[in-house]
Predict the 3D structure of the following.
Amino acid sequence: MSSIGSTNRCGSPLGLPLVAFDLGAPAERIAHYPLGRVVTEVSADAALCALVDLRRALSDDAANPDPAKAEKGSAGGLHDVRM
């Protein structure tokens, strides 16, 4: 997690999952990013829950790929997400 926008400017073009607190422009950009989650409560517990939920969602997506996305050539960047 980053309090500055450099992480999402660098991470999103690479297809990396991103999580940010709901503070300012980074949160606004991540809210529209398919691999992003915005945490409304600013706490370690809320951040951890968002990270675990995101990892679970990415693992579910990897286990059950969407054929429509594969046809469009979406890389997704979800092959090996570890937390």
About this structure: The two ends are 12 Å apart (CA to CA). Strands lie at 18-21, 36-39. The helical segments are 6-11, 24-31, 44-63, 67-72.
